[in-house]
Design a protein that fits this description.
2 domains; 65% helix; 4 helices; coiled coil; mainly alpha
Length: 103
Amino acid sequence: MELTGKSRLPRLVKERIICEYLSGSKTVQMLSEEYGMSRNAINQLVSRHRSKPSPTFEATPILPAMNRKKTREEATEKLLQENQELRHRLEQADLKIERNYSF
């Protein structure tokens, strides 16, 4: 998403930028490149939020994608469970093959 000129940012975009920065998932440089904003503009956005949090800025983000740490943890857990299940199935299939060829 590239923003040009002095266009006003939608509230959700501001929240996303602030969340991504404060969560540590993205640096100011990364956000600057992604949104086409200067690093100074992003730093000002975060500073304004820190000095006077907006009443519309929710403690828990509105969009699930904005809470990446929790999403990553859930995805990791899901992948680990899937990995264990697939390993178990593979082991069972190998045992079945061994039984069929042992005759």
